[in-house]
């Protein structure tokens, strides 16, 4: 008898789930009726009320089972709270919530750009926040497998647009190791991509040089993931770094290996010589004709503009320079992107870093909205 009851309950639960999809309420009250209180409107008015999603976007349970129906989306914001692949200060596991906190002031109905006159939240693309991938904090191998599976699921649903049926993901890191999972799912959906990698560090270090001397496990970290992405055949040899200034471990070997992994570089101080438009031209020329993944390590910014990061390096770009460069990339076929290495514990009371990171995410959204991309023909 108990077994029969149990089965009956499961069936009725499943039927209820199939009948009606209910989305948890989000920040703000737009989707839920609130009791009227003697003429005082308590249903609208604040971007700071309610639970926090990126830019007060609707939350969608993107990790529901593969066969379950969820609200459709074209661009998904996905958190990757993982920071056990770092070589310096930890804390980026709180990056996703930090970036969301930095984005609280942004709301879709009041996001008209003074530079472009456009509002990317009210354009053709439906943009949602999927919350975070559930990642164990005790085993990096398992955590990255969890992140691989999450990316696969989130990128595998059909988009809201029928014309461009593959949704794109912007990942909120997490330390930079998390980009490896994103590149795996991007490769699966879109084929080879060129990477535009904003960072003060090259991150193509040979695992034997950075960490892997101890164990294979230690070799998979936030300074080697681009080497591994190259070895796995995920990225094109038309990739480029931007903002590099951190020292090399070996006098020549690291740079030789970097070229072998398919990268050129724009160094941080190059901007003094060639200017913002010069940087934009170098990046666009390098990746022209290919699909692009943009990874922004927040440490590309000078610590004056982004103190809250794991491996800060002085002598970096300003927030305005970075935003201008990103906006200058409009027209590229950006199929995936991330902002990583935001470690809010080191931020200041003015939230300098998370405000910058939130704005960078908005620039990445702008690039995706500006240029819809056709997926590979289905295999
Ligand atoms: C999503 O799809 C629906 C149905 O096709 C369409 O009406 C809507 O304009 C699309 N875009 C957004 C942003 O909701
Ligand atoms: C880059 O890759 C292409 C094909 O994927 C290959 O033909 C070419 O030789 C490579 N170039 C370099 C410099 O490795």
Notes on the structure:
The chain has helices at 2-19, 95-102, 140-156, 178-190, 216-219, 225-231, 253-260, 270-287, 319-327, 352-370, and strands spanning 75-80, 127-132, 168-173, 194-198, 239-244, 263-267, 292-297, 334-340. The protein has 379 residues and is of the alpha/beta class. The chain has one domain (54-370): Ureohydrolase domain (Arginase, Chain A). The chain has an eight-stranded parallel sheet with strand order 2-1-3-8-7-4-5-6, sandwiched between helices. β5, α7 and β6 (263-267) form a beta-alpha-beta unit. α9 packs parallel to α10. The longest helix has 19 residues, at 352-370. It is globular, with a radius of gyration of 21 Å. The chain binds 2-acetamido-2-deoxy-beta-D-glucopyranose (2 copies). One 2-acetamido-2-deoxy-beta-D-glucopyranose (NAG) binds at residues 126, 160.
